[in-house]
Amino acid sequence: MRKVTLVLALLVAGASLLLSSDCAGRSFFRRNPHLRLILTERPRGSGRARSLYYPVWSPDGSAIYYLCTSDRTQLWSGGSLWRVASDGADPESLASGPFCAVTVARDGQRLVLCTGRRAAGGRLAVLDLASRRMETLETSQSDLIDLAVGRADPTRVYYCSMSRGLYRISMDGSGETLWDAQVTWHFDLTPTDSVVTKSNIIKVSVSPDGQRIAYPGVIEDCAENDLFVATVDSTATTRLDANPYEWSQNSFPSWSPDGKKLIFSAQELQPGDPTIPAEAELWILEELPGAH
């Protein structure tokens, strides 16, 4: 088994120390000009709040699949499944859920999902996009929280059980194998299907070329966080200045197929109480450092 474990804590801590003055003495806020709002579900009047999270790109980059929940505290709620064009047009409901994770098969014709709420996890399911038929794959565990389709072997699905660890199974439901008992939350795969994690609880995303990892990181002495990109070997890390609001919480970054953009979920923290988030929106950061 191949496994890559990121040791980014010192790099992130160093970056945080350098950037902590952003919170201590902030006098103005200017949004990164390369940020673009894709979709928001903020209520108007008495409308019900809905949060958008766990966005993933279609293989051709034309569409984005995501989960939508009526609970603004997105972390523990399951969401319904939606699709939207990459320019934010024509959002479409695909399945009512609840689901707690989604990824796209390499052929672009199927989605693989974890059913259930994020607080408890769920089962593994495959949705055929043409027929809208969904089938549940029989697995030994029922507390699945995250998943990824193999990049080197697209007939394989990797998924995390919160109680048992990382498993691998064929797309047809055969050959289930316990792959790594130490990985019990979030992960991603490199182009060679090596497993990448960062302290388990943080959702990381490996770039298409396998050279970089995007992840949310806390800014020291702040209630907010930002997005960071690090090299796989942890020799360099860059803060992306991806906060769309003066006080923001960012999560679930996902690389575009060409490696030039990141889509992510972002919440504005409420003025006066930065621990209370608003509804999560979908934003794209373009012009990434190191993109070709």
Draw up the topology in text.
Layout: E1 3-5, H1 9-19, H2 21-24, E2 35-39, E3 51-57, E4 63-69, E5 79-85, E6 92-104, E7 110-115, E8 124-128, E9 134-137, E10 144-149, E11 156-161, E12 165-170, E13 177-180, E14 188-189, E15 195-197, E16 205-206, E17 212-218, E18 225-231, E19 237-239, E20 248-255, E21 262-268, E22 281-285
Parallel strand pairs: 1-15
Antiparallel strand pairs: 2-22, 3-4, 4-5, 5-6, 6-7, 7-8, 8-9, 10-11, 11-12, 12-13, 14-15, 16-17, 17-18, 18-19, 20-21, 21-22
Written overview of the protein:
This protein is mainly beta and 292 residues long. It is 5% helix and 42% strand. The protein has 2 helices and 22 strands. The longest helix has 11 residues, at 9-19. The radius of gyration is 18 Å and the shape is globular.
What is the gist of this entry?
This protein is mostly beta strands and 292 residues long. The chain is 5% helix and 42% strand.
Query: What is the helix content?
Result: under 10%
pLDDT < 50 runs, ≥5 residues: 2-21
Strand line-up of the largest beta sheet: 3-4-5-6-7-8-9
The count of DSSP E runs of length 2 or more, i.e. the number of strands, is: 22
What is the CATH T-level topology? Neuraminidase
Identify the notable features of this structure and list them briefly.
single chain, 7-stranded antiparallel beta sheet, mainly beta, 292 residues, Neuraminidase
